[in-house]
Design a protein that fits this description.
Elements lengths: L4 E5 L7 H20 L13 H4 L2 H15 L4 E5 L6 H10 L11 E5 L5 H11 L4 E7 L5 H18 L1 H6 L1 E5 L5 H9 L2 E4 L13 H9 L4 H14 L10 H14 L4 E6 L5 H15 L7 E6 L8 H6 L4 E8 L26 H18 L4 E6 L4 H22 L10 H11 L5 H15 L1
Parallel strand pairs: 2-3, 2-4, 4-5, 5-6, 7-8, 7-9, 9-10
Antiparallel strand pairs: 1-10
Helix pairs in contact: 1-11, 1-15, 3-9, 4-9, 4-12, 10-15, 11-15, 12-15, 16-17
Bound molecules: 5-phosphoarabinonic acid.
Length: 449
């Protein structure tokens, strides 16, 4: 197997052909609509042809920048949140060794993805003894969390190495002309990369938003984009439904949703895919959760979570379906040892590879969950590498767009995320938010009574 396969098993008892048909019939129209509108900037469809449009020269330019930028650094600090954080984090975590074995390997650290004081204080302490540079990423250039973090670490870096050297150690990834970060970058002479106007945060991992940090970590951008391009070709309007994995996944999840399966659990047996699932969670949650509808995306890390959430999945409310990210090959080999006393009764596993044991846990769980009325699909990739992650990224993006349109929402907007910001600004006394401040103070006073 060299490409992503989607296995839809054990759904016969949950769905009949006619449950899928109405959704399936919408797919050609949706795909044509996406393709017809891809050049209209107001549709936010710039991601659709990105793998095809991104040139090798452009990728080499980013890799070259990453090499020279990080040559004398032991740490690169990436500052960003949401769509300006999760894609890079997902790919870097998936491709990095669990435990760094080389003392000289460069560490990629993240800031501004939360506003926890202790996190940022302790990070600043750590960076005191590091040779570091900063990649600050914000499309709007005005997001509070990365804005605060950038203030802290810009100041720290300037105090540590001087303002002139600090400016050489900062790269900004932002809008081509708008926003506070663009203004500052131009004033200070930072090197910059542009986030295209027609690509929203959660679809931006294959733009410099993801590519610059991924290159800093030393991974191969060309293979990542090749994987995405292979998937783009497999999911266009000219491909038959049965051969289009993104369309099949989108249709299946909507059909399950219509049967009351309102929560999708994306699960994996490979912990290094944890942040990949987090990236997926944002993509689907922010794209579909609107107008009081949408499948609730949740994630599970197996077998770990079978010892915590396994009970609920097996026997709790029957509103779940599962999608498992399955990986055929592991990177290393490690077998279960034989021991003479066998007090733990595990000798029946002696000589078996851990990957085999994991695979049987995956199979057994799938069957048990299916018997427990939790339908499941499996997305299989041969191994975790740049090419296969590129395939998966594009697969999920395309499927999300199709799925959102089937559901009847705009998968490229996120009006709901403003509500918390308005409240936070009101409570923090941001100029222009005086009315909110008054309203919230009153509300808090009443709730204390
Ligand atoms: O998907 C989105 O639009 C959000 O998650 C944004 O990416 C996130 O809020 C960060 O925004 P910005 O890049 O403007 O700082």
């Amino acid at each position: 197997m060299n490409q992503l396969e989607i296995k839809v098993r054990d759904t016969q008892s949950f769905l009949e052909a006619r449950d899928l048909e109405a959704y399936r019939q919408q797919v050609p129209h949706i795909l044509s609509k996406l393709e017809d509108k891809r050049n209209d900037p107001s549709e936010f469809l710039g991601w659709l042809n990105l793998p095809e449009k991104t040139t090798e020269k452009y990728l080499e330019d980013i890799q070259q920048t990453a090499r020279s930028f990080s040559k004398n650094l032991d740490t690169v600090l990436v500052i960003g949140i949401g769509g300006s954080y999760l894609g890079a984090k997902a790919v870097i975590e998936a491709l990095s060794p669990y435990f760094s074995t080389s003392p000289s390997s460069r560490e990629i650290l993240f800031a501004g993805q939360n506003i926890d004081e202790d996190y940022h204080y302790e990070l600043r302490e750590l960076l005191e003894n590091r040779e570091y540079g900063i990649v600050v990423i914000s499309k709007s250039g005005t997001t509070t969390e990365p804005g605060i973090a950038f203030r802290i670490f810009k100041q720290h870096l300037e105090q540590k190495v001087g303002a002139g050297e600090a400016a050489q150690r900062i790269i900004a990834v932002t809008d081509k002309e708008k926003g506070a970060l663009r203004k500052l970058a131009d004033e200070q002479g930072y090197q910059t990369y542009v986030i295209p106007d027609d690509i929203g945060g959660r679809y931006s991992v294959l733009t410099p938003v993801g590519l610059v940090p991924i290159a800093m970590a030393g991974f191969n951008l060309k293979q990542l984009l090749e994987g995405a391009e292979a998937m783009r070709k497999r999911t266009t309007s000219s491909v038959a439904f049965k051969d289009n994995p993104a369309a099949r996944y989108a249709v299946m999840r909507n059909a399950l949703y219509s049967k009351g399966k309102a929560i999708e659990i994306l699960g994996t047996y490979q912990p290094r895919l944890y942040y990949f699932m987090e990236w997926w969670k944002q993509l689907y949650g922010e794209s579909e959760g609107k107008d009081h509808k949408g499948i609730f995306p949740s994630i599970a890390q197996f077998t770990t979570d079978l010892h915590s959430m396994g009970q609920y999945i097996q026997e709790g409310r029957r509103i779940l379906f599962e999608t498992i990210l399955s990986v055929e090959e592991s990177n290393h080999q490690l077998s279960v040892p034989k021991v003479s006393d066998n007090t733990d009764n595990l000798n029946y596993l002696a000589g078996k590879r851990m990957h085999q044991v994991n695979a049987m846990a995956e199979k057994g769980t799938r069957l048990a969950h299916s018997d427990g009325d939790v339908p499941n699909m499996t997305l299989c990739i041969p191994r975790i590498d740049e090419y296969n992650l590129g395939q998966l990224i594009y697969f999920f993006e395309k499927a999300c767009a199709i799925s959102g349109y089937i559901l009847g929402v705009n998968p490229f907007s996120q009006p709901g995320v403003e509500a918390y910001k308005t409240n936070m600004f009101g409570l923090l006394g941001k100029p222009g938010y005086e009315k909110e401040s008054q309203r919230l103070t009153e509300k808090l006073r009443k709730s204390k009574k």
